[in-house]
Amino acid sequence: MRKGKRIHSFILYSILFALFMGLGLPTVVQASESNAKKGTAQNPYIITTDITYPPFEFQNDKKEYVGIDADIINAIAKDQGFEIEFRPLNFSAGLQALEANQVDGMISAMSINPEREESFDFSDPYYEAGTVMAISENNKEIQSYDDLNGKTVAVKVGTTGATFVEKLQEKYSIKVNQFEDSATMYQDVVSGHSDAVFDDYPVMAYAIQQGLKLQLPLEPEKGDVYGFAVNKGQNAELLDMFNTGLANIKEDGTYDNIIDQYLDSDEKGSQNGFFALIQKNWRELLNGLSKTLLLTVISFAIALLFGVVLGFFAASPYAILRGISRLYVTIMRGLPMLVLAFFIYFSIPELLNIKLTAFIAGVATLTLSSAAYISEQVRGGIEAVSGGQLEAARSLGMSYGKSMVRVVIPQAIKIMIPSLINQFVITLKDTSILSIIGIVELTQAGKIIIARTYSSGSMWIIIGLIYILIITFLTWLSTFIERKMINA
Ligand code: GLN
């Protein structure tokens, strides 16, 4: 009887814990973020930036955010005496984060245009750029937009380059490949999948100077300027400080120094070989890997707890508990993880008017999704033994709880272990999806290095090898533990 009670309290505590994770944490985050004055060290302005966009924003090998945009806003923050914290997100996710008030401002080589001015307030323009077309170094066929008829073009989601190609599509038959970051989109042309790419002139010119095998057959389009953006009607004070600070750093020469530092150097980037890439970037890769493991372990531990509870619900004699479990599994199984991640990171904060860190949103995504699969494995394990065994135990006079604890669960655990190990590996691999909300786990670390070094080819081999090595090691470790447990 006491064991039966213990199970009930275990279930109760687990539900309370899950509720705390689901509702409690965001409230804590909200409380801590909204009380203090903004722009202080305790409550810095959160600024999103696309850290795969050199020379405007990228991460150097010391893991610092640098580039024209990053240096400009840092100089302005110093001049005006406010504190900022960067939230790295790709361009289209950055736009969403700003719209959902997940961040206070966006500096991301962002062009000011009338459509965006409907949703955002822009600073004074701080840089003049322009969309340009690039083609492969040895392509002689494409010399004008007319030559794009029947060709494939790479663009980045949500950018002015993509909008420009949409306009060209009204005139020509062009197939479009969409990408989330510039380095991958350039690589698509270098490796011959796309015939041309459209992006901002300074960024593309810089990449070519660094050794990227593309060329620019045409002059850039005119009339494009960059601005710092805040959400419409929000953070007016920040926008004012940006404008005043911008005028100041232009006057005292800081602005020109920043631009010269990135654009006036003739220094050619060195192309890195496979081993040089590992040697130069192993620290970043290791940091990414530890984030991947941390996300996996935390999420899997909570998901295990939550999944076991739901699994017991699913195998319980009570229809209402079975119904709750089935509903949960149906929803989670039906949702692609990417959609779930965006929902948690963008929609929930907007609906509840709170702020969530990317890490908490990431853990919540992995936990909620894995819990559904774990609960199915737990249900499967219990059902595989429960039938006759449960009846036999009950006919010996044991209660339901006691029969489960003494007879069913020990056998079910042995059945469940291999699929739980499998789920652990899946959870680890799923962490790579979270790069989309800006978490710098292993995949995102790879993207950041590629953006800086233009080395997609070798880098993805390195990243792939690290995943295979770590997963093989963990699988070996868990099989070892499993054997020990079964023999025990
Ligand atoms: N300037 C372009 C735009 O605003 C591209 C920006 C970017 O890719 N970060 O759409």
CATH class of the largest domain: Mainly Alpha
Principal-axes geometry comes out as elongated
Distance between the termini: 26 Å
**Structural domains: how many:** 3
Say which molecules are bound, naming each kind only once.
glutamine
Average the pLDDT over all residues and give the rounded result: 89
Largest sheet: 5 strands, mixed
CATH superfamily of the largest domain: MetI-like
- Topology, number of strands: 15
| Number of helical elements | 16
Helix content: 55-70%
Strand proportion: 5-15%
State the CATH topology of the largest domain: MetI-like fold
Q: What's the CATH architecture of the largest domain?
A: Orthogonal Bundle
> Numbering strands along the chain, what is their spatial order in the largest sheet?
11-10-12-9-13
Structural class: alpha/beta
**Unreliable segments (pLDDT under 50, ≥5 consecutive)?**
22-34
Rg over CA atoms: 27 Å
Explain what this protein looks like in three dimensions.
The structure is a single chain. The chain is of the alpha/beta class. The protein is elongated, with a radius of gyration of 27 Å. It folds into 3 domains: 2-29 and 274-487, Orthogonal Bundle (MetI-like fold); 37-126 and 227-263, Periplasmic binding protein-like II (D-Maltodextrin-Binding Protein, domain 2, 3-Layer(aba) Sandwich), CATH 3.40.190.10; 131-222, Periplasmic binding protein-like II (D-Maltodextrin-Binding Protein, domain 2). A 5-stranded mixed β-sheet has the order 11-10-12-9-13, with helices on both faces. Strands 5-1-6 form a 3-stranded parallel β-sheet. The model is unreliable at 22-34 (pLDDT under 50). The protein contains 16 helices and 15 strands. Strand 2 (52-53) and strand 3 (57-59) form a beta hairpin. 62% of the residues lie in helices and 11% in strands. Bound molecules: glutamine. Residues 50, 53, 91, 108-111, 156, 159-160, 200 line the site of glutamine.
